[in-house]
Amino acid sequence: MASNMPAPEAPTASSRFSGDTPEASFGEWNPTEETVRPVRGRHRVVKQRGGLARSSTVLGVGVIAAVGAGGIATAQDKPAVSISLPDALTDSLPEAASLPGVGSLIADSDADSGSGTTADTAPLTAMVPVAETAPSGAEDRSAGAGEALRARILQQAEQQRAEADAEAKAAAEKAAAEAAAAEAAKQQSEAEAKAAEEKRKAEEAARAKAEAERLARLAASYALPTSSYTLTSTYGQAGSMWSSGYHTGLDFAAPTGTPVKAVHGGTVTSAGWSGSYGYRIVLELEDGTEVWYAHLSSMTASAGQKVATGETIGRVGATGNVTGPHLHLEVHSAGGSGLDPLAWLRGKGLTV
């Protein structure tokens, strides 16, 4: 391999170490700008995976070989020597020329010597780094790590989906339970309302039945004062015919001589003439209520006599202040206040 300038013949290793070459055969080497020719081209050592670049290694080997060939030079009286890659380097390392960066160095030397060798002259700075593809083992590990990450992401997504489905299912079940509880409460409320209504109706029916039975018993013990009658004047009716300004009893218009009966069992306390009432009988009942029979044509009961329900005590007439034959019936409470005879009779279960 050619160098930039002629170099002194390198002694062999045997002569260098045996001392055959005298030390005086070398002049003092004092490199200057004129003696040291810069290396042509721009070179950049490409960083390789796993340590130093091959070009650096080869260059170091070349430098060591050159130093070994030239000996250990001192800085005094040595001829200017350019460091180059010896031909022996390429002979001993055939693969050196194919290493990245080394081929360009060899090409530069060949160009300087004019040998016309067609080597790759691209500068190191323009060279593309060796493909940074990972070894197959690293690729396998990278692929395995990627698959593990992908599997973990898928597992997490599946777990999140399962949790979301579980939450949705729980929410749906809770809503269904609440709806069922609300429906059950509604049905229970309706059932309770229905039961309460039925109970109320049953109680009302029971009360009505009890009242009917009571009235039936009363009706059996009470009787109408007369028969074949027509009601003509009612209690409280206003008019000038009555001295009080209103009617104080109930009039049963009937033919003269129609029998008059005791409405309930009691004692006759008065029987005789009573002014505008004509002939009148007063019947006192067991509870102190008084029943007055007025305008009678005749009386068949006398004072102090006890009578039973429905027993005849007199007959219809037109005595006293009247306009025609009728029975004037009045009812007074035990305290003496007047009562409506129609309501009182109906209260005893009688149909007037």
What does this structure look like?
With 352 residues, the chain is α+β, with helices and mostly antiparallel strands. The protein has helices spanning 13-18, 54-70, 87-92, 102-113, 136-221, 341-347, and strands at 230-231, 250-253, 259-261, 266-273, 279-285, 290-299, 306-307, 312-316, 326-332, 338-339. Strands 1, 2, 3, 4, 5, 6, 7, 8, 9 and 10 form a 10-stranded antiparallel β-sheet that branches. The longest helix has 86 residues, at 136-221. It is rod-shaped and about 190 Å long. Residues 12-25, 50-54, 72-76 and 113-120 have low confidence and may be disordered.
Please describe the structure with a list of short key phrases separated by commas or semicolons.
352 residues; alpha+beta; 10 strands; rod-shaped
Based on Cα principal axes, name the global outline.
rod-shaped
Counted by DSSP, the helix tally is 6
Q: N-to-C terminal Cα separation, in Å?
A: 157 Å
| Rg (C-alpha, Å) | 74 Å
- Total E-strand runs: 10
Largest sheet: 10 strands, antiparallel
Helix content: 25-40%
Unreliable stretches? 12-25, 50-54, 72-76, 113-120
Q: SSE order, as H and E?
A: HHHHHEEEEEEEEEEH
Please state the structural category. alpha+beta
Mean pLDDT, to the nearest integer, reads 75
What percentage of the residues does DSSP assign to strands (E)? 5-15%
Topology:
Elements (H helix, E strand, L loop, with lengths): L12 H6 L35 H17 L16 H6 L9 H12 L22 H86 L8 E2 L18 E4 L5 E3 L4 E8 L5 E7 L4 E10 L6 E2 L4 E5 L9 E7 L5 E2 L1 H7 L5
Antiparallel strand pairs: 1-2, 2-9, 3-8, 4-5, 4-7, 5-6, 6-8, 6-9, 9-10
